Structures are given as structure tokens and as C-alpha cells.
Amino acid sequence: MHKTCSESPAATLNDKPERRLVYTVTTGVVVLLVLHALAGAASFRYGWGFHALYFFSGYVRALIVIAAFLLVIPWKSKTIGRLVDRMHWRSTRLHYGMAAALVLVSVVLFWVLRAKTHFLGDGYFVIRSLSQHSPVRLTEPLDDLVHKALFWLVGGQTDQTAETVYALTSCVCGGLFVVVAALFSRAVCASLGARMLFFLSLVTTGAMQLFFGYVENYTLMHVGVLAYLYACYCCTKRKCSIII
């Protein structure tokens, strides 16, 4: 039987295969949370990939771990979902003003918390390539052309300006990604709790690091892929033209 994300978790868990799947996934997620909590509590020599919480204060680590466990445990997550669904909202529509505010807040947050170094990937090579007006790279022509156009518009000549262009583009793409994720969740899910879960599943992935001033060639593609998937869904529901 096909189920949409608007159906209640209780109804879903009544089916034995569904219940088995839920508890299997939950067990795996709990194991990962425990590993993150342990690696965050002490600097393990071989904890790379699990020690992200180590760089936060003890109170923040505890808050993140507790919130994650509450969202993962089935009977707790259902309670939280019911409480969210009971919240009164004046409108379920994402107005243009709300979308603009969401973009602005997201861009500011991404910019304030942006990366200070660019050792991952080809960050410094990309910066130097832009500042020295190198030919368009055939491997990423559209991305390269967009950044070259922005660099030309601001009259850039230095590595610092090239870095700023890439970082600002990254943060703006992050703001657009957040808005598209909100629109996508509203289109797919009926209940507020399901929308929040769908939205959080999109904006809490590791790929969100791309939008914190990351200097590389993936930011435009990442937001473009989500926008494409959202347009495809709307097209299947006859909410937009196939041309879009």
C-alpha cells in the first residue's frame, strides 16, 4: 500500500514490515549517534569523521545529542510531531516576503559562519585561476563563466576579491537552497510535522557545508539539482509547465 508523508506515523507502524524497517533504521541511527557522542566527548586519535561534536562546548554537545535522540526514537518523534501539528499558523503558504526574509537570514548566517580556509578540494587553485583570468575550464564551463562574470562586474584583480566572489556566491546559493527546500516540503507533505521533517532532512545534510563560503564548483550545481527535482515534482502534479 502506497503511503505519503502526510500519513500518521502510528498508522505506518501498524504494518509489520514497516515497523521492522523503522526499528532497523532507528537502531542504525542510534549507533551512529552514540559514536558521535563518544568521539565528541574525547579527542579520539582515529575518530575522524565522527568527532565533529568535539569542537563545540559541552552544553552544545549535550543539547545536540539529546535533540537528535528525541527526534530518532519512534515514540518520542511521534509525540513531537503531534505537538508541532497542533501549533496554530496563520497561513501555510510561503509568501514572497517570507521567502525573501528566509533567504536574507540564511545568507547572513552562512556568511558569518563561513569557512576561513580552503584546503579541501581545489579551493586555492580555483581562487588563483579566477584572479589571474585563466581560460574557462571545460570541465565546469557554466560555473566558471558565472564566477568570471561576477569577478568582472566588481572589477576584481586580486586573490582576495576572487575568494570573496566565490564565498558570497556560495552563501547566496545556500539561501536559495533553503527556500527551495521549504517550497519542496510544502508541496510534498500535508501535515506541518511531516513538512518540518522533510525540510530538516534536506537542510541538515553534509552537503550544506558547500554554502558556508566554500570555494569550489559545486554550490550552483547543488541548488540547481534541488530546484530541478522540485520542478519535476510540480510538473508531475500539473502545478507547472514541463518547459520549466
Looking at this protein, list some descriptive labels.
single chain, 244 residues, mainly alpha, globular
Outline the structure in words.
This protein has 244 residues and is mostly helical. The protein contains ten helices and no strands. Helix 2 runs antiparallel to helix 3 (58-72), helix 5 (96-112) crosses helix 8 and helix 8 (159-188) packs antiparallel against helix 9. Mean pLDDT is 77; it is low at 6-13 and 88-92. The radius of gyration is 21 Å and the shape is globular.
* Run of helices and strands: HHHHHHHHHH
* H/I helix tally: 10
C-alpha-based Rg, rounded? 21 Å
Largest sheet: none
* Uncertain runs: 6-13, 88-92
Which percent band covers the strand fraction? Answer: under 5%
What's the number of extended β-strand segments? Answer: 0
**Into which percent range does the helicity of residues fall?**
55-70%
Average pLDDT, rounded to a whole number, is: 77
Oligomer: single chain
Please tell me what the overall shape is. globular
The N- to C-terminal Cα distance equals 32 Å
Class computed from helices, strands and strand pairing: mainly alpha
